[in-house]
Amino acid sequence: MKKYTILLAILFIISCGPEPADPVAELIIKNHSTYPLELTIYNAGIANQSPHDITFSLPINNETVYFYWSDIELLISPADSTFITFNNEKRIIYRKNDGQPRNILDINSWEYKQGVSVENIYIYTITDEDYENALAIK
Predict the structure, then answer these.
(1) Each residue's pLDDT tens digit, 2-59
(2) Which of 11, 18, 29, 78 could lock onto 45 through a cystine, CB 3.0 to 4.6 A?
(3) Which residues of 11-45 are buried (b: 16+ CB within 10 A; e: fewer)?
(4) Is the torsion defined by CA of 61, 84, 97, 65 positive or negative?
(5) What does the alpha-carbon distance between residue 54 and residue 42 come to, in Å, rounded to a whole number?
(6) What average pLDDT does the structure give for the chain?
(7) Strands (E), the chain
(8) Strand order in the sheet with 62-68
(9) What is the Cβ-side half-sphere exposure of residue 51, based on CA atoms within 13 angstroms?
């Protein structure tokens, strides 16, 4: 019986740890193109994890929301490239510092809004212009 009491006390102490902090940023990626797409960020930085690849599927006129508990630049900084694949037909590739006027890996390409429930909101909108700049997949 004593063992169970000690075990319950330990579980209670562990479960009463600090509450997780509120997210610092809300990242919204919108697909405003007329094509379904898949977005892959290679070597993305995720809070409290080693960088790894992230893939989102976005239907037409849809968006994905990602809450981030640190500065957005920590998500984008380690990333080395991003593929946006439209309808499995065309692909646009963005690389870190590739000089393209719009680049999902460049924080300046994101629209910034001051948040209410979240400190910062960053929005990246994928459009038909991105589709037009994409190359056919061979």
Answers:
(1) 444 444 444 444 444 444 455 577 788 899 999 999 988 887 765 555 667 888 899 9
(2) 78
(3) eeeeeeeeeeeebbbbbbbbbebebbbebbbbbbb
(4) positive
(5) 7
(6) 76
(7) 25-31, 37-44, 52-58, 62-68, 81-86, 90-95, 111-114, 120-126, 135-136
(8) 62-68, 25-31, 120-126, 111-114
(9) 13
